[in-house]
Design brief:
Elements lengths: L1 H58 L4 H28 L2 E3 L6 E3 L21
Helix pairs in contact: 1-2
The structure holds zinc ion.
Length: about 130
């Protein structure tokens, strides 16, 4: 029953591939959702900074400490956004140009957008 075994194995392989693809899509969707959430959070923080700055100019209140606190939050959220963006690029078998942040092919030697020379790939699969 060699043929039947082959058919069974092919079906099993197809099911495994479909399950893997589904879990990859789910992981990508989760990352995109997280990215969107963090980008919204970043906008809210920037708005707060703007409001505090406006108030300090308008009424002379010293909001420097609060603004500095929010600036640190901007850095943390920005790092999270960069991490999500890099992971999403990696899922698409791409990477981000360290100079301009463009999504480029993993094997690029130069960035097609800004022309920056790319660091040597450390991907063991290449
Ligand atoms: Zn670039």
């Amino acid at each position: 029953m060699k043929l039947w075994d082959d058919v069974t194995k092919a079906a099993s392989d197809a099911a495994t591939m479909a399950a893997k693809k589904t879990s990859e899509l789910t992981a990508a969707a989760k990352l995109k959702y997280k990215l969107h959430t963090e980008q919204t959070r970043l906008s809210v923080i920037y708005e707060k900074i703007g409001r505090l700055y406006y108030d300090s100019i308008k009424s002379g209140v010293d909001n420097t400490a609060k603004i500095a606190e929010l600036t640190a939050e901007v850095d943390a959220v920005s790092a999270e956004i960069a991490s999500c963006t890099a992971k999403l690029a990696d899922m698409k078998r791409k990477r981000l140009c360290p100079a301009c942040n463009a999504e480029i092919a993993k094997d690029s030697i130069y960035c097609p957008r800004c022309g920056a020379k790319q660091p040597a790939s450390t991907d063991p699969q290449e």
